[in-house]
Description:
Helix content is 63%, strand content 3%. With 310 residues, it is mainly alpha-helical. It has two domains: 5-249, Fic-like fold (Orthogonal Bundle), CATH 1.10.3290; 253-309. The protein has a three-stranded antiparallel beta sheet with strand order 1-3-2. A hairpin with a 2-residue loop joins strand 2 and strand 3 (293-296). Helix 1 (5-20) runs parallel beside helix 10, helix 6 (144-158) runs antiparallel to helix 7 and helix 9 (212-223) runs antiparallel to helix 10 (228-249). The two termini are 38 Å apart. Residues 47-48, 131, 134, 136, 176-177, 183-187, 189, 216, 219-220, 223 line the site of adenosine-5'-diphosphate.
Amino acid sequence: MYLSKKTIQMLAEKLNALNKVRPIDSALLEKIKKNFQIEMTYNSNAIEGNTLTKKETFWVISEGLTIKGKSLKEHLEAKNHHEALEFLYELIDKNKKNTISEYLIKQMHSLVVNESDSKIAGVYRTGNVFISGSDHEPPSGFEVAVKMEELIAWLKKEKNKHHVIELAAIMHHKLVAIHPFWDGNGRTARLIMNILIMNAGYPMGIILKNDRQRYYRVLAEADRGDYKNLCEFLAQSVIRSLNNYLSVVSPTKNKKEQLLTLAELAGKCNYSPAYLKKLILTNKLEAAKKGRNWYSSVKAVDDYKKSIAK
Ligand SMILES: Nc1ncnc2c1ncn2[C@@H]1O[C@H](COP(=O)(O)OP(=O)(O)O)[C@@H](O)[C@H]1O
Ligand SMILES: [Mg+2]
């Protein structure tokens, strides 16, 4: 087990909280999905060297705009990555048990570089490559096919032996280490690992452009067989997405802040309306007055309880 107990517990708790608020209103879900798509496309392409900003990515994808000073290739990369994400969502929606195959990986790759680099789309490299910024030497061109076969066999065998986030992290590393394509390996592998993650009900893990150095460092550790930090790194990205989701869909936070009459509030805490009023009049409990009535919230009472517990 590479993930710490604490991380595993946090993933479970937050996934559980998310499952509790399902089903999520479809309009809201669509909005969240759009945000994730921009976030993922921007970050994954930026890691790879694309210079579009997040806002520009949004303009290109959602508004079909052309950004002055940015190359056609950068535009196409944004558009193609977005289309690959649409395909990913379709997979997840359609079939809960979709398995990762070489065919699927090639399909994803051909979407990622569809127009930006169509000559290499969906075909394994036949020559050697190196990864700039890394000491890792991928297998030679003629070994790729065999290594990919081994990867799929490994995945089948290990599927139930790991926490799904661990499985996704190790799978991700193995795929980028083989580096089966001339280019687009990172982007494709970041999408493919999310098939595993999203099939398990989690929102997608997004590796941030700002974490590029750390990402390369934990991949280099994985090259040496040390997977711990890579797994934690991916888990943190999924936890960030879970938090993101929860902050948008969770009614509990807003509910706690909802203003209630003292009679209503008394029903939700251990104080009587009279005692609540006394706390308000002695400036111990945050409250608001509308007309002749006082209003406060569960959150305010929680804050008061915390203040006296100190
Ligand atoms: N030490 C490493 N071991 C294995 N893979 C690595 C290592 N360092 C970087 N990589 C992977 O190589 C990718 C870059 O390969 P590339 O084919 O150019 O992909 P893309 O064009 O999508 O960025 C990085 O995004 C990362 O996933
Ligand atoms: Mg590249």
